[in-house]
Design brief:
Shape: globular
CATH topology of one domain: Nucleotidyltransferase, domain 5
Helix content: 40-55%
CATH superfamily of one domain: ATPase, nucleotide binding domain
CATH architecture of one domain: 2-Layer Sandwich
Strand order of the largest sheet: 3-2-1-4-5
Largest sheet: 5 strands, mixed
Number of helices: 14
Distance between the termini: 29 Å
Strand content: 5-15%
Order of helices and strands: EEEHEHEHHEHHHHHEEHHHHHE
CATH class of one domain: Alpha Beta
Structural class: alpha/beta
């Protein structure tokens, strides 16, 4: 069907502000409906057209716009796009938008729908959405329990604290522990009743360090992503992609993690990466090699997280368990030394070759920049081992965190 209209919806907790423009009308219309079931039905009736398809865009605003997105998706003749708020914000700067009101934001979303590539949103299954809600709730409860335990430790250091306070904090900790256990049991029940989730969870647990709890948390965040995403886009979605800082000759900062992604996925990968670094020889050798080459222990841990995410992508695509031999191998297979061991003096280097830009920067720095301890002039070795965290692998994806792209539409750009 042909596109006969465009709409932008600004979402708030109580209302939906809508900007609508038909292809046969010069001016757009703006109206407001309540953000509830009745308002969603009214919105869908008003957006529908008998002549063709109307495309609708709204931002990903936590759970406030989820029910509206589901209602729009279920309505014939409507295509809905859940846009990344950061992309919309940069689009507003590009068109020099200065005002900030609900109506202005709705009109901006309408222009975003007309001018930018449209990626139709398809909601994940009910089981996946329930699993993600349960695992995120468990994480909230764990954080609350940690805060109460810290509070108990603080009040127990003085004899002036009334006993009723100590008793109340202990009761709260017991309650939160029971709730955490209940969420863990419910998550495993959801996985057990879904054959696809159960098989994927089994594959994840083939990695040493991934437990039942960790597999549920990782699977809940990955199952909502489009199936055509690449490994680089997964890394960008997790916020594990580097953010280089370089401009001309005056700025050559140290690359850092963008962290512009799913914080729940990063948190779910952290403990498995730590455990795998201790109990999986190949993972430990990879981490030790990075530390020996100048990486900090934390940077090496993040590199393990990123590499585990690459492995999980391949495991879920191929349906095969974790193969430690494919995780990491020394650069020179003919070397007899163990991975991570010190190479003899004069032996050929096992690091990756430098790029032409890196070689040019290294030649221009001279001995002063390499040996003076300057933070802005790292040594060639320290700059050369940034192949794990400092490669520009940006995923350019829609990091809304919910939903897939409709079949037949263009995939996220890598």
């Amino acid at each position: 069907m042909s596109i006969v209209g465009w709409a932008g919806i600004d979402v708030s907790a109580a209302t939906l502000t809508v900007a609508l423009q038909r292809d046969d009308r010069r001016h757009m219309s703006c109206f407001e409906v309540s953000n509830d079931a009745g308002g969603h039905r009214k919105l869908c009736r008003r957006l529908q057209s008998k002549r063709g398809t109307v495309r609708v865009t709204l931002e990903s605003t936590s759970t406030y716009g989820l029910d509206a997105s589901l209602a729009l998706f279920a309505t014939p003749g409507l295509e809905v796009q859940v846009a990344n708020p950061r992309a919309v914000a940069h689009f507003g700067r590009a068109v020099l938008q200065r005002a900030k009101t609900d109506g202005v934001d709705a009109r901006l979303l309408l222009e975003y729908t007309r001018r930018m590539d449209f990626r139709a949103w398809v909601p994940p299954s009910a089981a996946v959405m329930e699993l993600r809600s349960v695992t995120r709730r468990r994480r909230q409860l764990v954080k609350a329990r940690t805060a109460e335990r810290n509070r108990l430790h603080a009040v127990a250091t003085t004899a002036t604290t009334p006993a009723v306070i100590v008793t109340g904090i202990k009761a709260t900790i017991d309650f939160l522990s029971a709730e955490v256990a209940a969420m863990e049991v419910h998550a495993q029940e959801i996985i057990a009743t879904n054959a696809e989730l159960a098989e994927q969870a089994r594959l994840l647990r083939s990695i040493k360090g991934v437990s039942y709890v960790s597999s549920a948390a990782i699977l809940a965040e990955l199952s909502v992503l489009p199936s055509d995403m690449t490994t680089r886009q997964w890394v960008a979605h997790a916020g594990l992609d580097p953010r280089p800082r370089q401009s001309g000759t005056s700025l050559n900062g140290r690359p850092r993690l963008s962290k512009a992604g799913n914080r729940y996925l990063r948190a779910a990968l952290y403990k498995p990466a730590q455990s795998a670094s201790c109990h999986q020889p190949e993972v430990k050798a990879f981490k030790d090699c990075l530390i020996e080459r100048g990486k900090t222990p934390l940077a090496a841990e993040v590199a393990v997280m990123r590499k585990l995410l690459h492995c999980i992508w391949g495991m879920l695509r191929s349906g095969t368990p974790f193969d430690p031999a494919l995780f990491w191998q020394p650069q020179h297979s003919g070397d007899q030394a163990q991975p991570g061991s010190q190479a003899p003096r004069g032996a050929p280097s096992a690091r990756r070759p430098q790029s032409s830009q890196a070689i040019a920067r290294s030649a221009g720095q001279g001995r002063r920049g390499r040996h003076a301890g300057s933070k802005t002039s790292p040594s060639p070795i320290a700059r050369d081992v940034q192949f794990t965290l400092a490669r520009s692998e940006h995923g350019g994806m829609d990091a809304t965190g919910v939903g897939r792209t409709r079949a037949g539409t263009s995939p996220p750009r890598g």
